[in-house]
């Protein structure tokens, strides 16, 4: 802060405008091994700064704009309104300390013999016919190195063998080995380029597998048929239980 702004030191964020984005009603903070109280206490609306915040609400449903037909648009609008009513507490009845919500029949899996297979067939019809032999796919490996930091200088690198690092599975980090092949359907987990439709949740069909890039075609939204290329992206993840940082150069 400059000398001329010293009179603003008593103001929140030094008088600067700070944009906080997200929806804590849908996505709560992640507190490893934290209780429900710890999670709620970490939300921005539990902070004393919340009194100085002005809430700006979104009024346009982007997913509705991405629908490919009028029928999809109507179904998504009904579903979006239902989800909003559930979040606002307009649907359901209070039983004790819990709210019971009746799920519409069209959102339920009625079969009981193999519900997972039924869900896969509904989301990806004729999946087996459209995908070639899975064993012929190309395996994509992630690096198995750790980042040397000041706080873990006393930790010997030989303690963490490649086998141990390869078995680590946690939120935000992909598995060490992925088996992909041309023709397989994948979902993007990172926001890369919104104008090209490369957002979290975009579904793609893999066309090209290279060492540092994956070529694919968009199959959802307004950019259906567009050819895109997904590069490797560096990801550093803090693994609290092991007191180390994992450096992953991988696809998302």
TrEMBL record:
Origin: domain of life: Eukaryota
GO term, biological process aspect, one: telomere maintenance
Pfam families: PIF1, Pif1_2B_dom
Class of enzymatic activity (EC top level): isomerase
Enzymatic reactions: ATP + H2O = ADP + phosphate + H(+)
EC number: 5.6.2.3
Keywords of the record: ATP-binding, DNA damage, DNA recombination, DNA repair, Helicase, Hydrolase, Nucleotide-binding
Keyword Heme (UniProt): no
Residues annotated as transmembrane: none
GO molecular function: 5'-3' DNA helicase activity; ATP binding; hydrolase activity
Domain DNA helicase Pif1-like 2B: 163-207
Cofactor: Mg(2+)
Domain (DNA helicase Pif1-like DEAD-box helicase) ranges: 6-93
InterPro entries the record matches: DNA_helicase_pif1-like_DEAD, P-loop_NTPase, Pif1-like_2B_dom
PANTHER family: ATP-DEPENDENT DNA HELICASE, PTHR10492
Similarity comment text for this entry: Belongs to the helicase family.
Protein name from the UniProt record: ATP-dependent DNA helicase
Gene name tied to this protein: LOC110281456
């Amino acid at each position: 802060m400059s000398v001329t702004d010293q009179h603003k030191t008593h103001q929140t964020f030094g008088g600067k405008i700070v944009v906080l984005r997200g929806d804590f009603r849908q996505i709560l903070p992640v507190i490893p091994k934290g209780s429900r109280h710890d999670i709620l206490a970490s939300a921005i609306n539990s902070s004393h700064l919340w009194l100085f915040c002005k809430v700006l609400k979104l009024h346009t449903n982007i997913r509705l704009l991405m629908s490919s037909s009028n029928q999809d648009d109507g179904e998504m609008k009904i579903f979006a309104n239902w989800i909003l009513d559930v979040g606002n507490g307009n649907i359901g009845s209070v039983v004790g300390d819990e709210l019971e919500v009746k799920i519409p029949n069209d959102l339920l899996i009625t079969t009981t013999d193999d519900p997972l297979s039924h869900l896969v067939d509904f989301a990806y019809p004729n999946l087996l016919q459209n995908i070639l032999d899975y064993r012929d796919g190309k395996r994509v490996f992630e690096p198995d190195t750790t980042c040397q930091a000041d706080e873990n200088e006393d930790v010997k690198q030989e303690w963490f063998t490649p086998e141990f690092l390869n078995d680590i599975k946690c939120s935000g980090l992909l598995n060490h080995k992925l088996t992909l092949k041309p023709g397989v359907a994948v979902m993007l987990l990172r926001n890369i380029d919104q104008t090209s439709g490369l957002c979290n949740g975009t579904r793609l069909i893999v066309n090209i597998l290279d060492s540092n890039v994956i070529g694919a075609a968009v199959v959802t939204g307004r950019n259906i048929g567009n050819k895109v290329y997904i590069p490797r992206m560096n990801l550093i993840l803090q693994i609290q239980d092991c007191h180390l940082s994992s450096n992953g150069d991988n696809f998302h």
